[in-house]
Amino acid sequence: MTTSPIERAADTFAAELARWRVERSMSKKQLAARMGFDPSYVSHVEGRRHRPTEDFARRAEAVLGAGGAIWQRYQEYDELRHARSSASHRDPPVPEQWMPPGTGLIVEQEVATLAYREGSYRCVIRRSLYNAGTEPVTRYLIRVAVDRYPHDPEKSNRHHREHPLSFAELDLQAWCGEEPAREAMEYRKKHDRDAFKEVWLLFENTEGRYPLYPGQRTVIEYAYTVSHDKWGQWFQRAVRLPTRRLTVRLDFPNWLDAQVWGVETSLSAEEAPLRTPVIRRAEGERMIFEWTTESPPLNARYRLEWRFRGHNGPPPSGLAIAVRASDRMRAVGIVQRGADSLVQLPHQFDLPLDEAEARDVVDRLMGALDRVEELHTFTKGVGLAAPQIGLSWAAAVVRPADRTAEPVVLLNPRVVESSPETDEQYEGCLSFFDVRGLVSRPLALQVEHAKWDGGRVITAFEQGMARLVAHEIDHLEGRLYVDRMAPGVPLVPVEEYREAGNPWRY
C-alpha cells in the first residue's frame, strides 16, 4: 500500500498513462516503439517498477494526444519529487530530432474547411494547439500548395509556371485566440514558389507579442483564397505535428452535385482508400462533406478528391432547389449583366510588346471555358470575351461546335466585311444565361485580328462560326446581343427554349 505523496503521484501518473494507452487501442510494445523506448520500458512504468522521467512524459503526452492530462500528472509528481529533494537536477528535455524541429507543439484538434464560391476556393484552417515543449513558441509554420492537374505533373508544373500563385491573390489572414481576446497574427514569408508557399505565422502584431508558453493552449486560424483555375479538385492534409483529432470538410453549392472520395498514404504505406466514409449532409443550398480521424500517425497524408456532376442533369433527388443558370455561371467566375466591364471598351494590345499579357489573358479565357463546359454542353459552340471574366482587354476565344477543331483566338479583332445575307437564330450569353434571344446576324464575316508578333491577319467565318465570332466582337465593343434584337421581341426563358442541345440550322 502506497502512503507517501510521491508514490501516490507516481501511481496516478501510471494509471493515467495506462488509461490513455487503452483509449488509443495501443499495446505497451506499440506505445514504446512510437515513443522510441525499449519495448519493456512502458510496462515497467505502468507496473511502478520505473519512475517516469520528463522525457518519457513528454513523449507519452505527444504520442497519445492526451490533451495535457499525462503531462499534468507528471508535473504533479515532479513537483513533489523536487520539493523533497534539494537536488536541482531535472531530466533533459526531449531531443529536438524527435519532434519537428523547433517545436514541442501538439495539435489537439484541427478542422480544415474548403469552400467553393463564385469561382474560387476559400480555405480556412483552425487548430487547437498545446505547447508541450520547454520553450515559448513565437511562430508557426504553414504551407500552401496548389496543383491544378494532380494526375499530370508536367502539365500542372507548366500551368503554374505560366500562372504563378501570388500572395496578393491569396489574401492570407491569420488570428490567434478566441473572441473577445482574438489577436491578428502577422506573417513572414519563408519560401515563395510558383505553386508552393511557406509562411511563418508570428505570435505578434503591431500591438504587441503573445508567445505560447509551455503548458499553455490556444487556437490559431488562418484563411486564404485560390481561384478555380489554380486549384485542382483535391484537398490534402499532412500530419506534421502530433495530432489528436483531424476533421476535413468540403463545402459546395448543391447544384454542382459533387461526388467526393478520399485516399490516405504515409511515408511507409502505399495509397489506399480512407478507412472510414466521408459523411455527406445538406445545409440549405450547400452540400457539406466531412471526414474525421482520431490520432492520425505522424507524416500521414489524407486527400479528398471530387468531381462535379451538376451539368449532367438536375440536382440530386430530395433537394428541392432551383438554381438559376446565371448563378451557375457567376459561381465559375463569369461576370453577369449589369457589370460595368460589359459596357466599357477594353484596352487594345500593343503587340508584340504585350505578348506575355495577351497569352495570359487567353490562357485565363481557356480556363474559364473549361469551367463553363463542366456545367453545360454547348452543341452550337461557345465563346468568351475577356470583359466577361473581368479583364479589360480586347481578346476573345471561340470554340467551334466541332470539338476536333482548334479554338479561334481573337486579339484586337474588328469586322472588315460582312455579307448582306442574314438569318435569325436564338442566342444565349454566359453573362445572362437564364434567357435566349432571337438575333439577326450576317451569314458570313471577314475579321481582321492580331497575331502574337503584332502582324495582322484576316479570317473568314461562315454560318454558326460567323454568329459566334460576331457575338464575341460585340462584347469587345461594349454591346450585348439584346442590343441587336428587334424592338418588341421578347426574351425566352431558358426553361421554355426548345432548341437546347441542338445545333443551329442552316
UniProtKB/TrEMBL annotation:
<dbReference type="InterPro" id="IPR023635">
    <property type="entry name" value="Peptide_deformylase"/>
</dbReference>
<keyword id="KW-0648">Protein biosynthesis</keyword>
<dbReference type="Pfam" id="PF13560">
    <property type="entry name" value="HTH_31"/>
</dbReference>
<dbReference type="Pfam" id="PF01327">
    <property type="entry name" value="Pep_deformylase"/>
</dbReference>
<keyword id="KW-0479">Metal-binding</keyword>
<feature type="binding site">
    <location>
        <position position="429"/>
    </location>
    <ligand>
        <name>Fe cation</name>
    </ligand>
</feature>
<feature type="active site">
    <location>
        <position position="472"/>
    </location>
</feature>
<dbReference type="GO" id="GO:0046872">
    <property type="term" value="F:metal ion binding"/>
</dbReference>
<dbReference type="InterPro" id="IPR036821">
    <property type="entry name" value="Peptide_deformylase_sf"/>
</dbReference>
<dbReference type="GO" id="GO:0006412">
    <property type="term" value="P:translation"/>
</dbReference>
<dbReference type="GO" id="GO:0042586">
    <property type="term" value="F:peptide deformylase activity"/>
</dbReference>
<protein>
    <recommendedName>
        <fullName>Peptide deformylase</fullName>
        <ecNumber>3.5.1.88</ecNumber>
    </recommendedName>
</protein>
<feature type="binding site">
    <location>
        <position position="471"/>
    </location>
    <ligand>
        <name>Fe cation</name>
    </ligand>
</feature>
<feature type="domain" description="HTH cro/C1-type">
    <location>
        <begin position="17"/>
        <end position="65"/>
    </location>
</feature>
<keyword id="KW-0408">Iron</keyword>
<comment type="similarity">
    <text>Belongs to the polypeptide deformylase family.</text>
</comment>
<feature type="binding site">
    <location>
        <position position="475"/>
    </location>
    <ligand>
        <name>Fe cation</name>
    </ligand>
</feature>
<dbReference type="GO" id="GO:0003677">
    <property type="term" value="F:DNA binding"/>
</dbReference>
<keyword id="KW-0378">Hydrolase</keyword>
<comment type="function">
    <text>Removes the formyl group from the N-terminal Met of newly synthesized proteins. Requires at least a dipeptide for an efficient rate of reaction. N-terminal L-methionine is a prerequisite for activity but the enzyme has broad specificity at other positions.</text>
</comment>
<dbReference type="InterPro" id="IPR001387">
    <property type="entry name" value="Cro/C1-type_HTH"/>
</dbReference>
<dbReference type="InterPro" id="IPR010982">
    <property type="entry name" value="Lambda_DNA-bd_dom_sf"/>
</dbReference>
